[in-house]
Design goal:
This protein is an alpha/beta fold and about 700 residues long. The protein is about 45% helix and about 10% strand. It is globular. The N and C termini lie far apart (about 75 Å).
């Protein structure tokens, strides 16, 4: 092979390395690959600036290859290995994006800084088979091409001593060119980041930019290097004048129940039901991964329509049921919903709120109940170190005690995911209510866990967990013709088990006589995290629902991704009168379905009004009022309002209720996005600036 041609092939190899990795970075930040992600509209500046950031990152490796290795053969081998590593990173990011529907940030590593970090890691390993379903193996194309080119250009000629010893650059030129390439890479990355910071200066993105905005604007790996530096080495420093501004905003806007709705401009306060439940026990159950679509859902099995949640369905007869209710979790999942439902604040989204912002005195439901003479406790089947509950629940939230696996009775013959089952947890919660409620009312906060990933079926039955109830599905049942079938089957089996546990708990509550003095509230903590809508697309005739409308497929790509995201974010919220006396047709509060948009940030305020608590601050809205409001997703900035979902990132929207087609003008939608940005900025800064007094 003549030298000129050989060098040309080597340059093609380098060009392929540069091209494919920059292409992968671009694809990672568009909705071409991740259709359920809403990227920001990419301006010409963002496109060019991100290209230079990515190109600079690739130049670093080319410079290192020239500097470290004297021969082109070893440089090519180094570049091939870099391509493989980068591809693994791309695939790992795709799994993360597929599950969380948002982009990775190094601040997500807060999850592994809790006392139960080792258990979190082991659980992640157990869940990997389910998570790998979301991998985008498109990103394997890059290393495959690079490996093939390496074999054709380098490997098959390695026995040719002239070729093996050859180098396009050698001697001092190698040092000069290597250093120059490395410095050019550093300068390109630095200039790209500098231009990014100038672009967001004094804009909303200066304090609220997400990872996806960063990678779209400064380049994927370029931004992540900055993100890593910021997380590991930079200190959070906030000027006192900014803290004062947020504190004044808190005092001026949120110390009054009457607030102006950003949707319709009207003033709304609390509902008329203040003190309706005063003095009664509250059993507030946070249900792991229960989506709203399972309420009322029946599935045709062996010619019969079988209810997935028969017990929850029956509760609706004597309940107020919110069917347009949404979670607002960030990366903290269950712990984020605990935080929001107990304080009224949304999590920031990209970090573990209860680990990073757990050192101030928030206004919390347990403390408000204690001011009224209640005994308060929480319970969870996992160890107390998980999410730091053993410390956070008494110290941060103010519970009198947190019951975890260490101080609950654990029956080793009846475990799910190696944890105490929901049946046992809820039975023991009722016993604890009896114990602590002899002289005062009780606020009990059990958090279920049996419906957690991985959704294994039928392997869970072999562990004994489902032996307490009959399985929904016979062995070999098909909901969908794909490898995900067992995952979907498993999810519905686990939901059915949680429903069974709630039914058993209510029977026990009635047997003990506590039902007459107890109000039960139930809500899902977040969605199931799997593409469960596929079962409705493939076999729609298998499902019926007299309570909720099942999802249907559409050819409109924008509408489809919004419908699916709303479907997964929608969770049930039920206020159930266990005595059947207060919530009934002729009682003080009529059993009904409320379809106004509400979110988990409304729970604390609603509870405070119903139980005659005395909060100093009012966040969210009273869910039983006529207030028109919005809910949002801290991960991807989806904004949910009555009849519409709009992306706070892309600006795309979908009006799913035709009654609102004329109401939501382009100007109104822009106002909603601006109001969301304004509120999220305030919400997050209250947390980041630590506005409330420090814990004692």
């Amino acid at each position: 092979m003549e030298k000129t041609k050989t060098n040309r092939y080597k340059l093609i190899f380098v060009a392929a390395f540069v091209f494919f990795n920059i292409l992968n970075s671009y694809l990672m930040t568009t909705d071409m690959v991740f259709q359920d992600i809403s990227p920001y509209p990419r301006t010409f500046f963002m496109l060019i600036n991100s290209f230079f950031g990515d190109f600079g990152f690739i130049m670093l490796f080319l410079g290192l290859a020239v500097l470290i290795f004297k021969r082109d053969y070893h440089r090519g081998k180094f570049i091939m290995h870099v391509s493989i590593i980068l591809s693994i990173i791309f695939i790992a990011l795709s799994i993360y994006i597929g599950y969380y529907k948002t982009f990775f940030s190094f601040y997500n590593l807060e999850t592994f800084k809790t006392p139960a970090a080792n258990e979190s890691f082991l659980f992640l390993l157990r869940a990997l088979p389910d998570l790998f379903i979301r991998a985008k193996f498109l990103f394997l194309l890059s290393p495959l091409v690079i490996i093939l080119l390496f074999i054709l250009i380098f490997r098959r000629n390695r026995k040719n001593s002239d070729f093996y010893q050859s180098s396009i650059v050698s001697g001092l030129n190698r040092i000069y060119i290597g250093i120059l390439m490395f410095l050019i890479g550093i300068l390109m990355m630095g200039n790209s980041l500098s231009a990014y910071f100038v672009d967001i200066d004094e804009t909303w993105y200066e304090d609220n930019a997400t990872s996806i905005y960063g990678v779209q604007s400064a380049g994927l790996f370029n931004y992540y290097l900055y993100d890593a530096y910021s997380y590991f080495f930079a200190d959070e420093i906030y000027p006192e004048e900014k803290r004062t501004e947020i504190y004044e905003n808190l005092k001026n806007k949120y110390t009054y129940p009457e607030q102006v709705s950003i949707i319709d401009g009207n003033v709304y306060g609390n509902s008329q039901y203040r003190g309706l439940f005063a003095g009664k026990n509250l059993l507030m159950i946070q249900m792991e991964s229960v989506n709203n679509f399972v309420i009322g859902l029946t599935i045709e099995i062996d010619g019969q329509q079988v209810e997935v949640t028969p017990n929850l369905n029956r509760l609706l007869i004597n309940s107020v049921y919110f069917d347009n209710f949404y979670h607002g979790v960030g990366i903290g999942n269950t712990s984020d919903t605990e935080f929001t439902s107990l304080t009224g604040f949304y999590p920031i989204g990209h970090n573990l709120t209860v680990n990073r912002y757990n050192n101030v005195q928030y206004q919390t439901l347990p403390n408000l109940f204690k001011d009224k003479g209640y005994f308060t406790f929480s319970s969870h089947a996992n160890i107390g170190a998980f999410y730091g509950r053993a410390k956070n629940h008494p110290d941060l939230y103010g519970f009198d005690i947190h019951y975890s696996a260490e101080n609950l009775i654990v029956n080793s013959d009846n475990l799910l995911h190696t944890w105490l089952s929901d049946v046992d947890l809820l039975y023991q919660t009722v016993d604890l209510m009896r114990l602590h409620g002899k002289e005062k009312p009780v606020f009990a906060f059990p958090i279920t866990i049996s419906n957690h990933i991985p959704y294994n079926k039928p392997s869970e039955s072999e562990s004994g967990g489902f032996d307490q109830k009959q399985d929904l599905f016979p062995d070999g049942f098909k909901l969908i013709n794909s490898i995900a079938n067992n995952q979907y089957i498993g999810y519905l089996e686990h939901v059915s088990y949680t429903d069974f546990a709630i039914g058993e708990m209510i029977k026990y509550l009635e047997e003990t006589g506590l039902a007459d003095d107890t109000v039960i509230m139930l809500y899902g903590d977040h969605g199931c995290g799997i593409e469960v809508f596929d079962i409705f697309y493939e076999n729609p005739d298998m499902f019926e629902n007299s309570v909720n409308v099942n999802i249907t497929e559409t050819d409109d790509k924008i509408a489809k991704k919004f419908i699916e995201r709303r479907f997964i974010q929608n969770i049930p919220f039920i206020i159930y009168d266990a005595s059947h006396e207060i919530i009934c047709e002729d009682g003080n509060l009529e059993a009904q379905t409320i379809s106004k948009v509400r979110g988990t940030n409304c729970i604390a305020r609603t509870v405070a009004n119903l139980f005659n608590l005395e909060p100093e601050y009012y966040f969210g809205v009273d869910a039983l009022s006529e207030a028109v409001t919005f809910a949002y997703n801290p991960r991807n900035h989806d904004i949910l309002v009555d009849g519409m979902i709009v992306s706070g990132q892309s600006g795309d929207y979908y009006i799913y209720n035709e009654d609102y087609l004329d109401y939501y003008t382009e100007e109104k939608i822009e106002d909603i996005i601006y109001a969301f940005q304004d509120y999220k900025d305030f919400n997050d800064k209250v947390l980041k600036y630590r506005i409330f007094p420090p814990l004692d």
